[in-house]
Specification:
binds thiamine diphosphate; disordered N terminus; 33% helix; alpha/beta; Rossmann fold; eight-stranded mixed β-sheet; globular; single chain; binds magnesium ion; 15% strand; 306 residues
């Protein structure tokens, strides 16, 4: 294992960077540490949006609080930096009010799975028409590295100085068994499949979930003797095995001994919340009187040139 790298000063994205058009440059430099994976995931997301062909005005992003939560503040889209743990209910409200929007939740593991865990399982159960991207750095990064429900057993955190006694959630299994229609996991090392997966997730009907394992060298890696950001990327590279279609209860993540199972695990058509709602209301109220909740009927066409 190598010693600590010298910290480079955080610089604004250079002029003419392909990302410049997608970032609120007035908010640079960002708060993320050297070696953090959140920026890589944002890059992948932007690329996925470009490839998806979804017009910028038809996309909204919602984050909770945390290092990952800052994404909503940095990205130049309609974005909502909401309260801790409540990104999913905000996103659902947004989707119900504007069903023609693609609504994406981009938030941290603590935000989505600890304080927001209940919203997560019920949104997946209802198969609500949103995409959730979870940056899983195995800790509460922003608040100083406390143990999270995603922290591996025996891992060291500020709140578990003798090692975590509890077993973590397997996020892809949680999403899958709760009812999500699309479930995948990659790491920030696997940028190409991650871009492809994010693009696919954006276009799915129902609850699509992408877990992104991401290094937090400052608060997780250092304490758990995993080295710096590059060392953790090496772990991702060497210990990852891709198993598309594998049952999610067998999709383990073991950073120390491997494997880190990545891939697309679930892609199943399942009635999504808005479809169920439309069907039920059409039946009850009658098709002559009920205007279905949906992109075509809810809103007049907008002027894309604005
Ligand atoms: C209601 C509430 N409880 C606790 C906090 C403190 N808090 C802010 S961010 C955070 C955890 C963030 O962890 P995660 O979502 O994993 O994001 P990361 O910083 O790791 O990207 C906590 C506990 C808060 N802001 N609001
Ligand atoms: Mg985290």
């Amino acid at each position: 294992m190598r010693g600590p790298r010298t910290t480079q000063s955080l610089q604004a994205v250079p002029v003419n960077s392909p990302m410049e058009d997608w970032l609120r440059m007035d908010r640079m430099p960002h708060i993320w540490c050297p070696g953090c994976g959140i920026g890589t995931a944002v890059n992948c997301f932007v690329r996925a949006v470009e490839l998806s062909g979804i017009p910028r005005k038809k996309l909204a992003i919602v984050s909770g609080i945390g290092c990952t939560g800052r994404v909503a503040g940095y990205i130049k889209l309609d974005s909502f930096h909401t309260t801790h743990g409540r990104a999913i209910p905000f996103a659902i409200g947004l989707k119900l009010a504007s069903p023609d929007l693609h609504v994406v939740v981009f938030s941290g593991d603590g935000d989505l799975i600890a304080i927001g865990g209940n919203h997560f399982i019920h949104a997946a159960r209802r198969n609500v028409n949103i995409t959730v991207i979870c940056i899983n750095n195995l800790t509460y990064g922003m608040t100083g590295g406390q143990v999270a429900p995603t922290s591996p057993k025996h891992s060291i955190a500020t709140t578990t100085p003798y090692g975590n006694l509890e077993s973590p959630f397997n996020l892809v299994h949680l999403a899958d068994s709760s009812g999500a229609s699309y479930v995948a996991r990659y790491t920030t090392f696997h940028v190409r499949p991650l871009v492809h997966t994010m693009k696919e997730a954006l276009t799915k009907n129902g609850f699509s979930f992408v877990e992104v394992l991401s290094p937090c060298p400052t608060l997780y890696g250092r304490r758990n003797r995993l080295g710096d950001g590059l060392d953790i990327m090496r772990v991702f590279k060497e210990k990852a095995i891709r198993r598309d279609g594998l049952s999610t209860d067998a999709a383990f993540v073991d950073l120390k001994n491997g494997p880190i199972v990545i891939g697309k695990f679930k892609d199943r058509p399942r009635e999504a919340f808005l479809d169920v709602y439309n069907d039920a209301m059409t039946r009850v109220i009658g098709k002559d009187h009920f205007i279905p909740y949906g992109p075509v009927t809810m809103r007049p066409p907008e002027d894309e040139s604005e």
